Structure formats: structure tokens, C-alpha cells
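1st attempt posting a full record on here, be nice pls
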Amino acid sequence: MEEVARQLGVEGIQKRVLSAGKGDLPTFPDGTKVVFHYRTSLLDGKVLDDSRTMGGRCKAMELILGKKFKLPVWEHVVTTMREGEIAEFTCDTKHTALYPLVSQSLRNISMGKDPLEGQRHCCGIAQIHPHHSLGHPDLESLQATPQPLVFTLELLQVLPPGSFRLDTWAMSDEEKLEAVPLMHEEGNELFKRGEIAAAAEKYHSAIACLKNMQMKERPGDEGWLRLDHMITPLLLNYCQCQLMQGQYYEVLDHCSSLLFKYEDNVKAYFKRGKAHAAVWNEAEARADFAKVLELEPSLAPSVARELRAMEERIRKKQKEEKDRYKKLFTTAPPAATATSVSPAGR
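the predicted structure (as C-alpha cells):
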């Protein structure tokens, strides 16, 4: 549309309004947060991504304008929309060449993965090379043969700068360091209120902030170690939440990783011992609890309580198994059918 080209000062974008929004067209200074749902389709109608279903959940896209998002066309087109508006934007290939990489990141996020997984060691040229694997056949096809795309957007909310807390991905390292203690405290408050899943999410977000910063440091250097010492208590809190939600194998993985680096971490031994006990690893649980007593004898009452609980569960399980086998061998066989023989047959 000529109106869109005039508004944006760019060519190769056509807009079709599907549902008018409300109010006047907002202003969009740098730092504005826009929240919108999106559906990405090929010209033949094949849908590549839909924020309402990606990863099995409905999660709107959030952008901070002026942060140099990898797909500039989205920042351009939302500034032509009113809140509540639904519009379809057909964009030429010159605006969509980087969409496969953006989609890969968004799909990673929807699955709880690092958004940069699969891209971290690739320079910009390698990332758009047709032989660079993205792990998704449809995206690899689009990367090999770039083509126009149709973005159907619904603008949900426009938030002016300063009216919201930045998402972690949009923060500078300084802002992340300021935000982590706040997220830690929010997680603690949620835990006290019994909102365990929400608390785990807060701890996980804080860990992700620090891990992102840690990736810029050389392992073992002072900066890396400082961040790792900040991660450790958050990870232990996260493991406590996972224990309470029955995610025992995740606890085993995280605690083992901690103990590989910090062999005297009593809390990691204790939580790993509980996780081992929960999945019937009796010998491993006893070894971890013995290590707890060696490092912190004052925890003897707590260890004794955990061992009694484990032993009671084992006795109960053994009894159930014994009763089950007993029934197998005490069930009376079906009565035999008598066969009559006539005198003539003798």
C-alpha cells in the first residue's frame, strides 16, 4: 500500500487491514514495548509459525523498539498499527532473508531452550549460507530459497518507555546484575506462598541472566567464577522447587554438575540424596547422606529423617511386591473336568 510505504519510508511491504484497531495511532519512540501475536505464512498460505500455538502454548511476542531486533521489518510494520488492530503484511524477500534465524530463536524459546542454540559459533555469513543447518526442514528450505512472507499481526499493547520492566533479553549486563537480586527475592516470596512453579520460573530467569553474562567470560577466570558463585544459590533453590514438583532426574543432573565444581557443597549433596532416594537409588542416596554428615554433622537429625522415610518406602515397596508374587503362586488352578468312560469302551 502506498500509505504504508509513505509511513515507513521503505518499499516492498503491502498492508491489508483485517480488523480496525481503536483510538489514534500511537507514537513509537525508541524504548517502546510492543506486544503482539503473529502468524508467518508463505505466499501459498502454508503457515510456518503461529505465536498462539508455538511450543504448545499461546505466548505473545514482545519487542523493545530501537534495540536492533534481527528482523527490522517487524519494528517497521507495527508502527503503522493501532492497539487491537489485526493486519496482514506481505513483505518482499529483501525484508525476510533473516526470518529463518529469527524463527529458530523463537522456536528455541518456546521449548525452553537458549534462543541462540545452534547459532552461537556461526558468523553472519555462515548463518545465512544455505548449508548451515537450523534443525528445522521448513526453515532450512526457506533459508536455501528465500522468498516473500506474509506476517499477520494483532497488536495487543503499546507500552511507553519507563512503564515496564525490561525482559532479560533486552537488558544490558549492568541492568541484568541489578535485576538478578530482585528476581531472587521474588522467587523466595513466591516459594514462601507455596507458588512453587512460579518460584522456579523466577529462579530460572535469574540463572539465565547470569549464564548469558558468563558465556562472555573465560571459564575459570575471576569474572566467570564471580558469576558462578551467584548462580549456585539460585540453582539450589531451583532444585528444591524441582524436588517438590517430582522432577528428580533434573535435580540429579544439576546437583551433580554443582558437585563436580564444588565438592564440599552440603546442600547439593543433601538435595541429590533426596532425589536418589525418590528414584530408588538406595546406595547412591546413602552415600550422599553420609557425605552430608561428614561435612556438616549438625544435620544428623535431618539426615536420619530422610533415611527413615527412604527405608519405610523401601519396606512398603518390598511388601507390595511380595504380596503380588504370593498371589501369583497361591491362586487355585481351575478344576479338572472329569471324563466318563463307558463299560463298552474298556
